[in-house]
Amino acid sequence: MNAAPAAPAVFEFLDSTHRDIMAQLIQLSPLIDAIESEGLNAANRDKVRKILHFFNTEGRQHHLDEEKHIFPALLSSQDETVVRTIQRLMQDHGWLEENWFQIAPSLDAAANGNLWFDTRELRHAFDVFEALYLDHIMLEESVAYPEARKRLQAHDRAGMGREMAERRSKTNRRSGDSNA
């Protein structure tokens, strides 16, 4: 019998994921330039593959974490500014997903050594994605997370952390099974 995964400290984990997102964005911008100027060498393909995997897995898990655990507590706030901010952040998740659907096929092609896509279109789609993500993270860290810290009790946070860890553990097991 497997022991349950350890529950992470929720806000520290969410903040860490924001730093990881920023690191991926910082890597992707010059990588697009390199693909345009140098083409697809093995190193570029490997970097693209890692970035693609990150946003397809952890990026999506992060949004689910927020929508399942952080946003609901804030949507019931009596503060209309907080409620509007959370509604906007939820809408942002949809826009980010839509932007990712524009970017991912080109990155998938690049990871597999194909250059059928227009790098200028990829650059434009990435610029939109990056700008939205930077604004989104700033709003979460300046409004949503501080408000959630005030409202969520320690036992709520522990349960959230367990669920987040268990969901990732299940996802990792499924992806490990499909890679075998």
Structural account:
- The protein is mainly alpha-helical.
- The chain is 86% helix and 0% strand.
- It has five helices and no strands.
- It has helices at 10-38, 42-75, 80-111, 119-151, 154-179.
- Helix 1 (10-38) packs antiparallel against helix 4.
- The longest helix is centred in the N-terminal third of the chain and has 34 residues, at 42-75.
- It is globular, with a radius of gyration of 18 Å.
- The protein starts with 9 loop residues before the first helix and ends with a helix.
- Mean pLDDT is 89; it is low at 1-7.
Task: Provide a quick synopsis of the model.
This protein is an all-alpha fold.
Q: Which parts are unreliable, with pLDDT below 50 for 5 consecutive residues or more? A: 1-7
Quaternary structure of the protein: single chain
- Looking at the structure, what is the overall shape? globular
The fraction of residues in strands falls at under 5%
Give the tally of β-strands: 0
Mind describing the biggest β-sheet? none
Mean pLDDT: 89
- The count of helical stretches stands at 5
**Spatial separation of the terminal alpha carbons:** 22 Å
User: What structural category characterises the helix and strand content?
Assistant: mainly alpha
State the order of secondary-structure elements, H for helix, E for strand.
HHHHH
Could you estimate the helical fraction of the residues in percent?
Answer: over 70%
Radius of gyration, whole Å: 18 Å
